[in-house]
Amino acid sequence: MPDKRHIGLPELPAILVEEVVHAALREDFGRAGDITSQATIPAGATATAILSSREAGILCGLSIARGAFRLVDPAVKVSTRMRDGDALKKGTRVAVISGNARSILAAERVALNFLMHLSGIASYTGRFQAEIAHTGARVTCTRKTLPGLRAFEKYAVKCGGGANHRFGLDDAILIKDNHIAVAGDVATAIRRARAFAGHLVKIEVEVTDLIQFREALAAGPDAILLDNMSVADMAKAVDVNRKHKGGSIKLEASGNVRLETIRAIAETGVDYISTSKITMAAPTLDLGLDVMIRPTGSRRAK
User: Fold this and answer.
1) Cα 88 from Cα 59, distance rounded (Å)
2) Are 111 and 70 in contact (CB under 8 A)?
3) pLDDT digits (tens, 9 = 90+) for 209-265
4) Is 298 helix (H, G, I), strand (E, B) or coil?
5) Any idea what DSSP says for residue 6?
6) 78 vs 11, 92, 94, 293, CA distance in Å?
7) What are 261-288's pLDDT values in tens digits?
8) In this structure, is the dihedral angle defined by the CA atoms of residues 156, 157, 160 and 164, taken in order, positive or negative?
9) Dihedral of CA 176/177/183/189: which sign?
């Protein structure tokens, strides 16, 4: 039976993968390339290396890792039966890489950097989602991502079973406290947003208390973000939304979301729980690459 994390999982556009991998390789190659391998390994030496996990987690970033090896040397072969979103155990063999030894070692760090970072986000997201699996809530990311890596980090969140929030300032309207401060009040901000937005653009408004929540509810946005509200107030907001709107307006909780707090937040009945921790505080997942067959042309194995 396929892992449910694979359902609805998007594919990373090849042009984005090539762009980010190319930049990373240029940074690492510098002005002279891998001088260590050039100095110690014959040009025609070949090798086979095993890419494996050194701890349990969720895999993410295979296409980027594969892209790193192929950009360095199209003749390098990357064979795997794994796919992004798969659960890993300690010691799981993720891929077998074979080809020119210098090429494999030159691409190794870039490939592992992306794999470890994105698998770390997927794994951490999976831990958050596991805490609320008994509810109908989904953990979702924010725009707090590393510059240039947003599409990849949001992809990693989905690999971990989470949901994506807006990708940028241009694909949804999110009215926050500072927008409300300038507009004058919640209702005015929502009314102006509704007049501006096209029929495919969603409108969400951030509120900090039940007074603002009721004002927002009456104005009818698509979603309401409950920012740093108490668990009791969030539960009250869910109840009011069900009674007056039939639960039609999506409710999102945000603020002070940690592994220790997300369960209680989800049990209030909110639809989404957003947190920057799954992208900004996720520890990397330890994966490694080990050469299993010594390069041909080497005089002795060490």
Assistant:
1) 7
2) no
3) 999 999 999 999 999 999 999 999 999 999 999 998 898 999 999 998 999 999 999
4) coil
5) G
6) 18, 16, 10, 15
7) 999 999 999 999 999 999 999 999 999 9
8) negative
9) positive
Distance CA 185, CA 214 (A): 12
Reference 266, options 282, 218, 175, 275; nearest CA is 275
125: which 2 tokens?
């997201």
| Phi (first) and psi of residue 93, to 5 degrees | -80, 115
Please indicate whether the domains covering 4-129+286-293 and 132-280 agree at the CATH topology level: no
Amino acid sitting at position 83: R
Sheet holding 203-207, edge to edge: 138-140, 272-274, 250-254, 223-227, 203-207, 173-175
What is the C-alpha to C-alpha distance for residues 164 and 68, in angstroms, rounded to an integer? 26
Q: What's the CA gap between 24 and 144, in Å, rounded?
A: 21
Q: What is the pTM of this model?
A: 0.92
In which residue are the tokens 């049990």 written? 267
* Cβ-proximal residues to 220 (8 Å cutoff; 6+ apart), any chain: 190, 249
Q: List, by residue number, the catalytic residues.
A: 109, 144, 176, 206, 227
Q: Give CA–CA dist 149/157, Å, rounded.
A: 12
What fold is seen in the domain 4-129+286-293?
Answer: Aldehyde Oxidoreductase; domain 3 (3.90.1170)
Per-residue CA distances from 149 to 145, 266, 276 (Å): 7, 28, 14
Spacing of C-alpha 75 from chain mean position? 30
Q: Which CATH number fits domain 132-280: 3.30.1360.10, 3.55.30.10, 3.10.105.10, 3.20.20.70?
A: 3.20.20.70
Domain ranges of the chain: 4-129+286-293, 132-280
